Amino acid sequence: MAGNLADSITQPINDQLKKITGGSGSSSGSSSGSSSSSAPKKPSIIEFTPEYYAACTIGGMVACGPTHSAVTPLDLVKCRRQVDGHLYKSNMQGWKTILRTQGDSIFTGIGATFIGYSFQGAGKYGFYEFFKKTYSDLVGPKIAHDYKTGVFLAASASAEFLADIALCPWETIKVKTQTTIPPYANSVWDGWQKIVSKEGFGGLYKGLVPLWCRQIPYTMVKFASFENIVERIYIFLGKPKQSYSTLEQTGVSFLGGYIAGIFCAVVSHPADVMVSKINSDKKASESTGQALSRIYKQIGFAGLWNGLPVRIVMIGTLTGFQWLIYDSFKLYVGLPTTGGH
């Protein structure tokens, strides 16, 4: 499989080189021309094969790890303002304060962010494609078509449930490091060792339930709204997706992703606040439910929306670029973009 996947990923490059050089040049003119023109072009990767799911997994990793890492300075201030709404008056003031503080950095937590969201992106996109096909086959083509949004929601929820198990330890280290001044740990490994030595391995998963509460609705909205938004964009444009260039298709992916990201931010924000609070303020003697109840009494309903405007900008941009990168990768390996079929 690894060899097939490698061939599938590099085949588009070879195809382009052949176009430039006019073919391999080793075959006779008329015979070669006749066979090449009559033979149908085979896709680089066949959909719904192991190679297909592997490519989607790699695409998700490439889309999520770097993009989440790129917004670390914004995420850092957002997390700190969620934990303490009086810490910074604005994002700009927060960044200035961090830059002036010895031992602090606007890129605090970037290592755990990159590792965690690379794993999460791999699982989220790879499993989404797998579950979307599996559930569609399970209910049959008619129901899958008539109730496709339900299939999108079920597939994305299943994918995120599994992806968060891979993300949670790294998210715990990230949030703990970002919300402690000076930072709790000097590196990802330092954070891992400190948490495990103090709280045991389970300490890395103390925020799993709030993480599910944040990420599963987030991903359900992210995928279901994206698929529907992209479909409506192509309906509005008046032509099928295949009639547009790859650049135009990825532009639609970015626009659809940005709009979907705004919805994602609003739906998941209260749980995002609670994830930050739990990872920074949960007592060892408390259950997750007890900690959530205590924290909610402290911050109230209004406190659940601390930092929402910043997160809308962050998640909208993040989601737009993730879909842009993911669909660009799919096109690169010879697959169609997501949605709008």
From TrEMBL:
<keyword id="KW-0677">Repeat</keyword>
<protein>
    <recommendedName>
        <fullName>Mitochondrial thiamine pyrophosphate carrier 1</fullName>
    </recommendedName>
</protein>
<keyword id="KW-0812">Transmembrane</keyword>
<dbReference type="InterPro" id="IPR018108">
    <property type="entry name" value="MCP_transmembrane"/>
</dbReference>
<dbReference type="InterPro" id="IPR023395">
    <property type="entry name" value="MCP_dom_sf"/>
</dbReference>
<feature type="repeat" description="Solcar">
    <location>
        <begin position="248"/>
        <end position="332"/>
    </location>
</feature>
<keyword id="KW-0999">Mitochondrion inner membrane</keyword>
<feature type="repeat" description="Solcar">
    <location>
        <begin position="51"/>
        <end position="134"/>
    </location>
</feature>
<comment type="similarity">
    <text>Belongs to the mitochondrial carrier (TC 2.A.29) family.</text>
</comment>
<feature type="compositionally biased region" description="Low complexity">
    <location>
        <begin position="27"/>
        <end position="38"/>
    </location>
</feature>
<feature type="region of interest" description="Disordered">
    <location>
        <begin position="16"/>
        <end position="43"/>
    </location>
</feature>
<keyword id="KW-0813">Transport</keyword>
<dbReference type="GO" id="GO:0005743">
    <property type="term" value="C:mitochondrial inner membrane"/>
</dbReference>
<dbReference type="GO" id="GO:0005315">
    <property type="term" value="F:phosphate transmembrane transporter activity"/>
</dbReference>
<dbReference type="GO" id="GO:0035434">
    <property type="term" value="P:copper ion transmembrane transport"/>
</dbReference>
<comment type="function">
    <text>Mitochondrial transporter that mediates uptake of thiamine pyrophosphate (ThPP) into mitochondria.</text>
</comment>
<comment type="function">
    <text>Transport of phosphate groups from the cytosol to the mitochondrial matrix.</text>
</comment>
<feature type="repeat" description="Solcar">
    <location>
        <begin position="147"/>
        <end position="232"/>
    </location>
</feature>
<dbReference type="GO" id="GO:1990547">
    <property type="term" value="P:mitochondrial phosphate ion transmembrane transport"/>
</dbReference>
<keyword id="KW-1133">Transmembrane helix</keyword>
<keyword id="KW-0472">Membrane</keyword>
<dbReference type="Pfam" id="PF00153">
    <property type="entry name" value="Mito_carr"/>
</dbReference>
<keyword id="KW-0496">Mitochondrion</keyword>
<dbReference type="InterPro" id="IPR044677">
    <property type="entry name" value="SLC25A3/Pic2/Mir1-like"/>
</dbReference>
